[in-house]
Amino acid sequence: MSLYEIYFSPTGGTKKVADIMIKAMKKDAQEIDMIKDPDKILQTEFSEDDICLIAVPSYGGRIPSVTVDKFQKLQAKGTKVILVAVFGNRAIDDTLVEMQDILEIPVEILVYGASVIHHSKRPLLQNYYNFTHIDDEKSRERDLFLAEPSDPDSHYSIFEDNHGTHIFANNDLDMMTKLGELVEHGFTHWKLEGIYTPGHNFVEIAQLFVQARELIETNQFTHDQAFLLDEQVHQLHPNNRFLDTGFYEYDPDQVK
User: Which of 21, 53, 15 has its CA nearest to residue 36?
Assistant: First the structure.
């Protein structure tokens, strides 16, 4: 995996912002200066494992016209992109939207598995153990969870590793019965998270979603088939973890 810092910075201000963001990622990046070496971005083939931070100034709420042709012709296959728009004394308006349209960046949707709701680089569990004089495991395998004082049935999984403390949503996500609706709205890039699902079971669940995609692509994905596949997902999912569709069906007025 390679990290690329791509910027168009006539006065140096946009590069300064890009440098700050790259520094925060704590990883060496390959620089591509679209002014000094305008053809380098076209000579580089970006892979699915790469990450590109692309920074441009906002000119009147639009991206610089000289960059449009380069962005449209660059070679990338599923590369993850961080878009940065830098402005001086006005709003960026549609700059980021225009960049997204030109670069054809797909939205990736989590359709199965645990979803992180909080991450801290601090060792929160270890700090708690030190305060309470508890000597216990902090790993994912320990299967620790938090519960709200007002809701003893809540179950927020938590573990700690070298990257910090990770807290997950009360229930895991399962969007099998909603895949048709997602595709209708253009959400065709799906992600499955198997951190709390045993390896073999996770592979079988992934195969069920592949089967659903194939049925959708051949216009054979029916309501009944969605629920049959969903039943299999529930059978393979860990018994001590619950599944739902997250915020998908929530009334926006109910979200506070």
Answer: 15
